[in-house]
Amino acid sequence: MIQNYLKTAFRIFIRNKTFTAINVLGLSIGISASLIIFLIAHYEFSYDTSVPNADRVYRVVMNLKFNGDESHSAAVPGPLSQVLPQETTGLELTVPVMQFQGDATAKVSIQRDKTAEPLVLKKQTGIVFTNPQYFSLLPHQWLAGSPVSALKNPFTVVLTESRARQYFPTANLPDMLGKEIKYNEDFTATISGIVQDLNNTTSFEAVEFISFATIAQTHLQNNFMMQVWNDWMAYSQVYVKLAPHTKAANVEHQLALLLNKYNKDANKDKANTIRFYLQPLSDLHFNKEYVGFNQRVVPKSVLYGLFAVAGFLLLLACINFINLTTANAARRAKEIGIRKTMGSSRKQLIMQFLGETFLLTLLAALVSFCLAPALLKLFADFIPAGLQGQSLRQPYVFLFLFLLTVLVSFLSGLYPAFVLSGYQPIKVLKAQAFIRGNETKQVWIRKTLTISQFAIAQVFVVATLIVSKQINYALHTELGFNKEGIITFFLPRDTVTTHRQQLLNEINAIPAVELASTGFLAPMEDGPAFTHIAYSPKPEIKEPVQIRWGDPNYIHVFKIKLIAGRNILASDSIQEFLINATYAKLLGFQNPEDAIGQHLRFGEKKLPIVGVMQDFHEQSMHAAITPLVLGGNNGDIFHVRLKPNMAGNNNWQQAIRKIQKAYHQIYPDEDFDYKFVDEAVAHFYQTEQRTAHLLSWATGLSILISCLGLVGLVMYTVHSRTKEIGIRKILGASVNSIAAMLSQDFLKLVVLANILAWPLVWYGMYRWLQNFVYRIEISWYLFVLAGVAALLIALITVSFQAIKAAVANPVEALRSE
After folding, report:
1. What CA–CA distance (Å, rounded) separates 299 from 313?
2. What are phi and psi of 137, to 5 degrees?
3. How far apart, in whole angstroms, are the C-alpha atoms of residue 126 and residue 643?
4. I need a labelling partner for 9 at 20 to 30 A (CA). Which of 498, 743, 780, 816 fits?
5. Does 638 share its domain with 700?
6. Global confidence as pTM
7. Is 409 or 817 the better-scoring residue by pLDDT?
8. Which ranges carry the MacB-like periplasmic core domain (predicted)?
9. What do you get for the CA distance between the two ends of the chain, in Å?
10. In terms of domains, do 408 and 526 share one?
11. Which helix (H) or strand (E) holds 181?
12. Do 718 and 653 sit in the same domain of this protein?
């Protein structure tokens, strides 16, 4: 029986090559999308699942409120990790994790042997300061050294095997113990242990662990603000593991008491509060509200959106299969009638048709599996780096494909199997099975499926247009400062003041350079830089404020406008402030001129306000403009505005090469790393740009599948109305009138699909736009544009088959009577 089913199936596939190819193509698209998204989801949801007792592991984070505006921080005050073990109960482990300031990298020098030159690595990543309990928290296997004593003393360091092999490629692991590593010319640490790398996906990506006790013995004590409770840095995090049966709420209550004890101004009123919160380890990888420094976060909403895209494409593929199969039903009607006459039961026919569907779906799954490596490269922007190198020959991949094949076979094949197996032998053999009156019960189902296809496609089209328009708005709207043609770069950590001024003079002398400045961060940077500043009328206004600083040319490089007062003067330390208009209003000055001459308390100093700047965006369009001050001070970040690129010339690259040459003349051993400010601004919207790219692909694929389904419905309709078309032609109907008659019904379906899709996509995109403080309005013409595009695509698709039927010889149509 099964052998007979297989022979019949293969004969049907070969006899209907076009239908088979279209079906396999449609199913392959849906299954490929599902496979790639499954691989991404499996990778992302596996984060931190290998940590022992992960349900008891938390990161201490903060929920803050400034003037009623809520914010969140993954960083905490430096001294918290030292106080927790002594003044709280219910904690099994307390693990601080700190990184070097700046870009969290360090210059590392390794003396491999006494005779050779030391190995110098200028920007090593993955280095943290932590305590011995770190290795009780994470399942590192020890290869050399003792987990109890390895990080107990200051100036000791533990390496992972991969980092140890990088530093000492030919040495045995035990022989590496006792070797010394110098960090940033600041201190030297002795290797006290080597552990195996974590092979599982995890948020803990450190590979080099310096003893936390080292901080107290170096100037890092001040850099990391280890005695400061009312300020914190992005590089300071604390993890805890609760004792069994301890509730997180109890520990959070104790944290609140600690905060009130050491920072009495933390909760001065309802509009200004700070509260510690225990973030579950399972939430770290998915919660964008608490993003640690260089931490990779993928919100679950993004993954759910990917699931929706895969589900829609798979649904479209199933609908497409159903329409094409029912369109081809007439060719198999006599086969079904004869089989029933010869004794086949309806159950046997259903099993045969489901088996054929399974074989087609299995073929599509094999095609998808073979295409997966190429698709992973094609969609590299969406694929996590750790996933790209993994093998697809994993048991869970084959299990997923098998289950998906069964599911798709059932969804795609069930309805056609019942329709085809339900034909009555007598009507089939008398050629009455496809008289139009006998098919009215199935027509509305096929039309409903077609409407669903184009409604889904329309959702993708409109969503793509709105997302693209919002990204374009974010990238090209007026930011309050100039970002075009400006590069920034850091000086080395050990910069000498005279060298800074010397380099600045040489850069300003380059003909293609319009102006250069030194200072702190550019106006718009990824990650805010807050400081505490007070204004002291009664009552005192003491709020965290964003800070920038630079020499007098800073505002000229970025073309930041002054709306009151004067520019800052040159100084080696902050002696006066410019403030933005938002801060002026917060301080109570409706007229910017009134703020000039007022004083702000900054640390122990009272410094004057000498000017008010026009507001500019210091963060992405997701966030509102916040209070900001700009102090007069030299800094270690250069900001260089280049003269406009002339047509046919490459003067920007020439200017950058000259800047690099001047840089290397002063710092011959340092790397010259620069970035364009406009590219840094665009990076703010990397997620949205990837979303737009993904939507563009989903739109194209959904339209392709929908058109394939529409072809199926047209073919079915043309076949069922062949004699009607022949009679109309004999009676004098023109080709145009017949083509229009066949097309108008399908265009009505597309119009109805648009009307049904528009409210859904409007609501979805309205909700998405709420993530932006500054956003576009959803314009009605986007819906009209998408609707017209859908109608044109549908018209082209339908017209080809309609004209083909209209020009056919009517004699051939009537001869089949």
Report:
1. 22
2. -80, -40
3. 38
4. 816
5. no
6. 0.78
7. 409
8. 20-255, 455-628
9. 35
10. no
11. strand 180-183
12. no
Considering the domain architecture, whether residues 550 and 621 belong to the same structural domain is answered as yes
| pLDDT tens digits, one per residue of 722-739 | 777 777 777 777 777 777
390 burial level (CB within 10 Å; 0-12, 13-18, 19+): middle
Question: Cβ contacts of residue 659 below 8 Å, gap of 6+?
Answer: 487, 507, 510, 513, 640, 672, 674
Q: What residue numbers bound the domain in which 533 lies?
A: 493-669
**Which backbone phi and psi does 160 adopt, to 5 degrees?**
-80, 165
Residue 659 CA to residue 510 CA, distance in Å, equals 8
| In a domain? residue 731 | yes
Q: Please check whether residue 330 lies inside any domain of the structure.
A: yes
Token digits for 17? 């090559």
Residue 557: what residue type?
V
- pLDDT the model gives residue 437: 45
pLDDT tens figures, 275-287: 999 999 999 999 8
Tokens of 361: 């779906």
DSSP secondary structure of 374-423 = HHHHHTTTTS-HHHHTS-S--HHHHHHHHHHHHHHHHHHHHHHHHHHHT-
**Selected residue with higher pLDDT from 110 and 103:** 110
In a domain, 89, yes or no: no
Tokens of 404: 């998906």
- Domain assignment present for residue 6? The answer is no
Q: Which of 620, 643, 669 is the last residue of a domain?
A: 669
Q: How many domains does the chain have?
A: 3
Q: Report whether 257 contacts 103 (CB < 8 A).
A: no
496 DSSP 8-state letter: -
Q: Which of 147-156, 210-219, 531-540, 714-723 is predicted least confidently?
A: 714-723
Please give the mean pLDDT across all residues of the chain: 84
Beta bridge partners of 205: none
Q: Which two tokens stand for residue 118?
A: 């030391």
Identify which of 243, 310, 271 has the alpha carbon closest to the alpha carbon of residue 92: 243
